[in-house]
Every structure is written in structure tokens, then in C-alpha cells.
């Protein structure tokens, strides 16, 4: 499995996947989980998201489970995004999911995308360092090098948090890359 996005999945198929909230949530859940879940776990997570109740009501759970089993997971399996075993009800994320991930901005727990967070950190960091260099009161009391160091630390913390949130996906990708190198 290549470590980088392959873009093998036609754009029309990507949009078909993204057109349904349950398929989007299934891919998102698998991406942030360890990459392997059972149908029951996935149905519970999606039903809880839809109803905003944990545990979700039984009727919502059954509805989600049924639609995943009959429609969404077979489609995602056919497209090579997940591997779904209908006998064991185990679902595994495949490398081709990275092609879909390109179109899905991952939202942080604070309700903003990682891209928005990084852009905000960059602009704030630049502003504070320039303000310190221009002797803006209060900000100039701290050395610009310290402001720059704090900014780099904030970026490192955000990157570490993002990697930790998606650790199973990243590790699986690295293992796939390692197998390719052999």
C-alpha cells in the first residue's frame, strides 16, 4: 500500500460516497478509530451521532445497522474503501479511503477544521512576532525569539494532537509504506 494518496478512485465515486451522511460518518469513524470495527460498534456510533443520545434509542440503532449492512457497507466495499465481511460483520478501512479523505476536512473537537486551526495559529504567530519586533506595548516585553518559540510549540502541540486523534490511521499507513519498501 502506498503511503501517499493514490487518487485511483474516480471523483464521481468520491461524490457518491460523500452524498450520504451515514457513509461519510462511517468513513470518518473508521479513520479515527483503530481502522477495524464491528457493524454493531459502527451502527452505535453513527446512531448516537444522529440522535445525540448515548446510548442511542434501539429503533435508531436498528435503522442505522440495517442501512449500513444492506446498502452503505456493500457500496463502500465495492469501491475498495472498506473491507466488509458480511459473515463476521467486521469492517476494515482500506488504503483507498485516503482518496475520499482528500475531500473530507476533518473537524477538531472544537468544531473547526485542522486547516482552519493551522491557519489561525500561523496568522496569530506572525502578528505577535511582528508586534514584538515593532515594540508594541506589552507584547514587546517578551523577546520575539520567545514568541516564535511559543508559536512553534503551539504548532507542534496541534500536530501532535492531530496525529494522536488519527493515530491508528497514520500507523496503518506507515505499516503499509514499510511493506512497500521491503
Write up what this structure looks like.
This protein has 182 residues and is mostly helical. It has helices at residues 11-18, 21-32, 39-51, 58-78, 97-101, 114-133, 144-165, 167-181, and strands spanning 36-38, 82-85, 90-93. Strands 1-3-2 form a 3-stranded antiparallel beta sheet. Strand 2 (82-85) and strand 3 (90-93) form a beta hairpin. Helix 3 packs across helix 4 (58-78) and helix 6 (114-133) packs antiparallel against helix 7. Mean pLDDT is 84; it is low at 1-5.
What attributes does this structure have?
single chain, 182 residues, three-stranded antiparallel sheet, 8 helices, 6% strand
What is the string of SSEs from the N terminus onward? HHEHHEEHHHH
Enumerate how many helices there are, as a single number.
8
Please indicate the percent range of residues in DSSP E strands (runs of 2 or more): 5-15%
Termini separation: 12 Å
Output the strand order for the largest sheet: 1-3-2
Largest sheet: 3 strands, antiparallel
Radius of gyration: 21 Å
Instruction: Report the principal-axis shape.
Output: elongated
**What's the count of strands?**
3
Average pLDDT reading: 84
Classification by helices and strands: mainly alpha
Model regions low in confidence, pLDDT < 50 over at least 5 residues: 1-5
- Share of helix, binned: 55-70%
